[in-house]
């Protein structure tokens, strides 16, 4: 079981590693105010307690996502990869299949913290989501402790844990303006 608790140094190395993976090394010198790791847990589309719905489905006879489809998610954010680990918030957002090759989508969402150190605060993000490759998305704002936030939200490729569940490690690299 992986738990949160990595040092700032480890987090920074992890971030640099991700930047190398996505070829975005221009961010490497930035300094971040908060590094917030979390696990997004999902009950998959079509299962009994799904945390995902397909609100627009232009291809009802296909089991694959299709260009133009829209998915809405309300996943739990937890401290670990164990589906019973402590909940610290929700990831609430949309995926729009805006890529005709279907391997990536336009995504927007909020990380809404309801427990832990950041209870009551939120992070807003926007960008390209690639479920199989992992993604780096832009943090475009926030509330509470994350007011006026910028930075990057980095996620690992998703891990399927059962026919009905999956998770992914997400790390928010948050930069706040000088106060
Ligand atoms: C779905 O939710 C119901 C009601 O909370 C619960 O009894 C059931 O075990 C859940 N099913 C799964 C697969 O988690
Ligand atoms: C989906 O399948 C049904 C039943 O086979 C068929 O009547 C319908 O035309 C199909 N719809 C599309 C969009 O292909
Ligand atoms: C989570 O908790 C439930 C109820 O206590 C238990 O049945 C289930 O096996 C647990 N799941 C894991 C992965 O530990
Ligand atoms: C989409 O991703 C799958 C799985 O990684 C890969 O096999 C396929 O070649 C990719 N397709 C495109 C168009 O990139
Ligand atoms: C989060 O904050 C709310 C509002 O202050 C409080 O009611 C709630 O108990 C807190 N939750 C946790 C898990 O600390």
TrEMBL record:
<keyword id="KW-0052">Apoplast</keyword>
<comment type="subunit">
    <text>Homodimer.</text>
</comment>
<comment type="similarity">
    <text>Belongs to the plant dirigent protein family.</text>
</comment>
<feature type="signal peptide">
    <location>
        <begin position="1"/>
        <end position="28"/>
    </location>
</feature>
<dbReference type="Pfam" id="PF03018">
    <property type="entry name" value="Dirigent"/>
</dbReference>
<comment type="function">
    <text>Dirigent proteins impart stereoselectivity on the phenoxy radical-coupling reaction, yielding optically active lignans from two molecules of coniferyl alcohol in the biosynthesis of lignans, flavonolignans, and alkaloids and thus plays a central role in plant secondary metabolism.</text>
</comment>
<protein>
    <recommendedName>
        <fullName>Dirigent protein</fullName>
    </recommendedName>
</protein>
<keyword id="KW-0964">Secreted</keyword>
<dbReference type="InterPro" id="IPR004265">
    <property type="entry name" value="Dirigent"/>
</dbReference>
<dbReference type="GO" id="GO:0048046">
    <property type="term" value="C:apoplast"/>
</dbReference>
<keyword id="KW-0732">Signal</keyword>
């Amino acid at each position: 079981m992986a738990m949160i608790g990595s040092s700032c140094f480890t987090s920074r190395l992890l971030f640099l590693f991700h930047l190398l993976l996505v070829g975005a090394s221009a961010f490497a010198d930035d300094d971040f105010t908060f590094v917030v790791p979390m696990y997004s847990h999902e009950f998959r589309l079509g299962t009994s307690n799904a945390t995902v719905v397909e609100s627009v489905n232009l291809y009802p006879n296909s089991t694959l996502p299709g260009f133009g489809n829209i998915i809405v998610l309300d996943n739990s954010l937890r401290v670990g990869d164990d589906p019973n680990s402590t909940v610290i918030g929700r990831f609430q957002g949309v995926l729009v299949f805006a890529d005709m090759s279907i391997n990536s989508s336009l995504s927007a969402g909020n990380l809404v913290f309801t427990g832990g150190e950041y209870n009551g605060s939120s992070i807003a993000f926007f960008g390209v989501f690639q479920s199989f490759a992992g993604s780096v998305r832009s943090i475009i704002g926030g509330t509470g402790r994350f007011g006026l936030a910028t930075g990057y939200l980095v996620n690992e490729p998703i891990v399927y844990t059962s026919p009905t569940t999956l998770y992914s490690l997400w790390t928010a690299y948050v930069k706040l303006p000088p106060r």
